[in-house]
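Quick check before the chapter quiz. The format below is the same one you will see on the exam, so make sure you can read both the input and the output lines.
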Amino acid sequence: MTCPQCAIAETEIRSPLFKSNCDNCAARLLAQGLAAWRAINARTGVDLQSEIEKIWGVERYAEGRRAVWGWMQRLDIGKTV
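Here is the expected output.
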């Protein structure tokens, strides 16, 4: 089920609204953060990995990574102008 903030993000992709217990909102938030920027610009992926593990845990890390990177692609994070 989609939370209200995710429903808004479907049409307003850069919506600043996030729900604290929603994995999709967490992925969208991480995708827009400094750790994601560092990972996409080959500075380091350690910070992003750590953030993903904090939210999804080691056992669900792959799921969280897919969600975050999916949002990074959707938001064009790292795309040069």
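If your answer matched, good. The chain has five helices and no strands.
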